[in-house]
Amino acid sequence: MRYRLYNIDLCAGSEDGASLPFIDDAALLTDDGVITYAGPASDAPPHDCREVCIDGRRRLAIPALANAHTHAAMTLLRGVGSDLNLNDWLTTAIFPAEERLSEDRCYAGAALGFLEMLRFGVSACADMYMFMGASARAAADTGMRACLARSVVGDDSGDGGRLAESIKLAEDWHGAENGRIRVMLAPHAEYTSTPKIIRAIRDAAVERGLGVHVHMSETMAEVEGCKARRNGLTPPAYFEAMGLFDAPTLAAHCVALTEDDIRVLAARGVAVCHDPVSNLKLASGVAPVPSLLRAGVKVCLGTDGAASNNTLNLWEETRLMSILHKGVSGDPSAISPAQTFNAATLTGMRAMGYNNVGLLKPGWRADIALIDRSGPHHQPLVDPAADLVYATQGSDVKLTMVDGIVRYDDGQYPGLDALKVYESAREASRAMLE
Ligand code: NI
Hints:
- The protein is α/β, with parallel strands linked by helices.
- The relative contact order is 0.17.
- 37% of the residues lie in helices and 22% in strands.
- It is built from 15 helices and 16 strands.
- Strands 1, 2, 3, 4, 5, 14, 15 and 16 form an 8-stranded mixed beta sheet that branches. Strands 6-7-8-9-10-11-12-13 form an 8-stranded parallel beta sheet.
- Strand 15 (397-402) and strand 16 (405-409) form a beta hairpin.
- The structure holds nickel (II) ion (NI).
- Nickel (II) ion binds at residues 69, 71, 215, 252, 304-305.
- Nickel (II) ion is lined by residues 69, 71, 215, 252, 304-305.
């Protein structure tokens, strides 16, 4: 299928995060999921009768966003256990409800999560949870680009077959759906596994060329517990000692880091997923993002699950990443709009292993969002980069294309019955919470 998006403005993203170029009156052409032209309308190739033409109505085309840490099916638990800290929230509210999860319920929750992300211009997510075969089917059905990982926990008695399940998931789904679905291995966190399990995951990841997705240093309590358990090592130092970072690693949260931790993450190319809304809501703290960026660490953005956020609207993280660190550091130049936008797009895609997604340029996959800038909160549009990061609302997203296919179009999900997805999710949620 060929598309021509015409009558648009364009922000193609930038490789280095130094600046964000904008083009007024542009065109975007795609062929079979690949961008073939992105630039001024005046230089676009002539119309071809095989193209499907979409009038962009002067909306802004941007690379679709990347949500680099979430638990999609936790949409089923949205609003559950509000106003508790991480430990109490997990043990008293979340884990008991998750006992009642099933394949079908996870499918319903993941499908709802993917529709919510597509609605906000997010084309890709790193989803770590359980019953991930259901999540894979939901990604295939909704068109979401999804990097899936079965969360592995365990104790001295073993991991309950979870690593084997993860490897099966990779065999069944890694690279499926034209490369839209990828699989990573996921030790849930230091505090939920043993050295033997971490080592087994590390070996399986390296042997199979898979990435690793892990929760790391989310709270100071986690770091203190880790030091007590692991001969004084912090979670990054412990994982480094275990060789885990020999696999490309995506580490979520990284709130409580030392200077040494930051050096290790930079040296080993570990991508850090910053989840500011979840960290604030669970009172976990604020990650040292300006220090990470200064050290050259790859920082991307995530919502975490809907149960600790409570939405999957990555525009909130995008705005918050910029303003939170200015406020905490006292430095209004701590993070630029271009750096934030890179975290929300290109860096997140790369952290998930999507190496040709996240910029709008020829040869790259067509993951595109169209932003309506006609509302009062976008006027008078003096600085388009500042406007994009500080003023855009998730509801301004009018169209989301994933891999060259329109998956969200102004309230509709082409080819999909959204109301049925919502109803299935409500039923699944009721059954888990009754
Ligand atoms: Ni998480």
